[in-house]
Amino acid sequence: MSANDHRWVRAGLVTAAIGVLVLTGLVGALPATSAAPSASGPAPSATNATGPHLPTPIQHVFLIMMENEETAVIYGNQPYETQLANTYAWGGDANANPQGVGYYAACHPSAPNYLALTSGKTLQCTSDGFANYSVNNLGNLLQTSGESWVAYEEGANVPCQQYNSGLYVVRHNPFPYYSDLGGNVTGSVCEQHDVPIANLTTDYPYNATPPAFTYIAPNILNDGHSSSAATGDYWLSTFVPKLIAQPWFSSSVIFVVYDEAYKANGNYNTSGYDGMHGGPVYMAAISPYTLGMGPLTQNSSHYNLLTTMEWLLNLPPTGSGKDGTAAFPALVGLFQPRLFGPAKTLSYTRLGSVDLAGYDLRADNLQYANLSGADLAGADLRGANLQYADLAGADLRGANLRGADLQYADLAGADLHGANLVGAELQYANLTSAQLTGIGPLAGERTNFDDADLDQAVLTHAGCGVPNYLVAIGATLNAIGVPATCAPPL
């Protein structure tokens, strides 16, 4: 809302010709010589603003794809992958969980899971055939955002190879499937970024700083498809430690993921959740920021992982898939809380519907962040910069927002029961239908709602402290409920 859009209010016994409203224990208005604060101008467009290169200290994201095993075949049975899970963060073991909570594939067979992980869409379940799809995808997001990326295909003969040969199969390489990447035409995006590598273990450029995103498809022996789970585990034990040993690992995360689940007798495992039937699969997140985090405690899937990679790479969701939705938010639980604060720069980060309850976000820069629907109950946001942040529908119950800057923030429908907003800046914030019951300043202080849009906000039973007033200079106060303790009432 710009300054020109504000409605100056008159209410009850509290009036002022210059549009200043003060709710106080003494009836009156500010002196006529006082001027209402003016906005510095319309809010700048978030789409035109320039944010940080990437929104977290993680600057390099790897995705290593493995093949055809359910979680129970890997965790507890394959030594290296068990060690990774016990050292870092991982998706958990749905096979051993009484409620079946774990990380799940989308469907069967292989190809649709690779497509789900890179497009967010459920495509060609039941088929491993090669096809072209005109759908938005991770490669296109990276390209249009100007982020560096590479896909290494072990055993391929040519860039963007669209046919099987030797130990390479195209169904394990999603990028040739996407028509907007141009296929294997000379000079196409796919031809430039989806490249063959003869032997990953010896030919990978370990000493070179990796791009923002690296996709790695081992050949069908090293990924376990045409060999065994033990073979895949051994290959990972020869490759991943070389990545961990590099200096750039300090700002990296390596996701090791299986495409789909098989039972011990070779049949598909068709368990899942939310319409998925790809079975439970192993997923590990290897990073200095995932040390000691252990298993996730909620269901997650390939769609969540795509959302997570988009968040880490500062990319928007595809817009046509399940990624970036409330049902499949980013997996922030994989990462140590220190990734999020205090005093971190997380502006423009996209974390809609994530669970950040109780996190220490003091003095974080969250300008333009998308935290819509996020669980921030009990979070410490003292002094945080939340200008223009999207907090619509967020759970902020008991959150400490003392001194936070919420100018132009969207708090429509947010739950602020018991939140501490002492000294918070809320000029031009949108609190339409927000639940504010139970807030209030400490003795002698005030809650500042200058120029806030409080249309239909619920303030009933709020504590106004001593002296008992709220200041709402130039605020929109249509259909709000003011508690009796904030005298005089409207």
In words, what does this structure look like?
With 490 residues, the chain is largely without helices or strands. The chain has 2 domains: 7-26 and 345-490, E3 ubiquitin-protein ligase SopA (Pectate Lyase C-like, 3 Solenoid), CATH 2.160.20; 60-311, Alkaline Phosphatase, subunit A (3-Layer(aba) Sandwich). Helix content is 14%, strand content 9%. It has an 8-stranded mixed sheet, sandwiched between helices. Strand 5, helix 5 (189-193) and strand 6 form a beta-alpha-beta unit. Helix 3 (110-119) packs parallel to helix 8 (302-312).
Descriptive keywords:
eight-stranded mixed β-sheet, Alkaline Phosphatase, subunit A, 8 helices, 490 residues, little secondary structure, single chain, Pectate Lyase C-like, 2 domains
Short structural description:
The chain is largely without helices or strands and about 500 residues long. Helix content is about 15%, strand content about 10%.
What's the layout of helices and strands?
Blueprint: E1 22-23, E2 60-66, H1 71-74, H2 79-87, E3 89-90, E4 103-104, H3 110-119, H4 138-145, E5 149-154, H5 189-193, E6 194-197, H6 200-203, E7 213-217, H7 229-244, E8 252-258, E9 283-286, E10 294-295, E11 300-301, H8 302-312, E12 470-471
Parallel strand pairs: 2-7, 2-8, 3-10, 4-11, 5-6, 5-7
Antiparallel strand pairs: 1-12, 3-9, 8-9
Counting DSSP E segments of at least 2 residues, the number of strands comes to 12
| N→C terminal distance | 24 Å
Oligomer: single chain
Describe the main β-sheet briefly: 8 strands, mixed
Look up the CATH topology of the largest domain: Alkaline Phosphatase, subunit A
Determine the structural class based on helices, strands and strand pairing.
little secondary structure
Tell the overall outline: elongated
Spatial arrangement of strands, main beta sheet: 6-5-7-2-8-9-3-10
